[in-house]
Design a protein that fits this description.
50% helix, two-stranded antiparallel ribbon, mainly alpha, 3 helices, single chain
Length: 135
């Protein structure tokens, strides 16, 4: 049973998925720090120091000193989350573009076309593998 489980892990993409999740978790700390500590301060400065998280529509004001009784729609938190998502998506796209290179295309395999069905065959073939005609 242990051997079957080991074979499952090594044959399937389970190990690659686990490694991807672990690396993604580690990378998320770097991306969050890059966004929150490097990119968001200049964006906040360019927007005039606006703090979107304080934007809200108050449905019922707080009574007395207990602020927990306030009922409000905090749409500013949603605006902050959308801005952070867009910036994180751009950073991930940028990092992926830098680190992931596309493999060069494979060289073309020489073939010869069958004169009857026009399908490609190996250059040394004597019969077409599609229509079995003599080439």
């Amino acid at each position: 049973m242990v051997g079957d489980f080991r074979a499952f892990l090594l044959r399937t993409n389970a190990l690659a998925l686990a490694i991807g999740v672990i690396i993604g978790t580690a990378l998320s700390g770097i991306v969050n720090s890059l966004v929150n500590d490097i990119l968001m301060p200049p964006i906040g400065f360019l927007l005039g120091g606006v703090d979107f998280s304080s934007f809200k529509i108050v449905l019922k004001a707080a009574t007395g000193t207990d602020l927990a009784t306030e009922v409000a729609i905090r749409y500013g938190a949603l605006i902050n989350a959308v801005i952070v998502f867009v910036v994180v998506a751009l950073v991930v796209f940028w990092v992926g573009k830098l680190l992931i290179r596309e493999a060069p295309p494979a060289p073309p395999v020489p073939t010869k076309a069958c004169p009857f069905c026009r399908e490609p065959n190996a250059p040394d073939a004597s019969r077409c593998k599609f229509c079995t005609s003599t080439i």
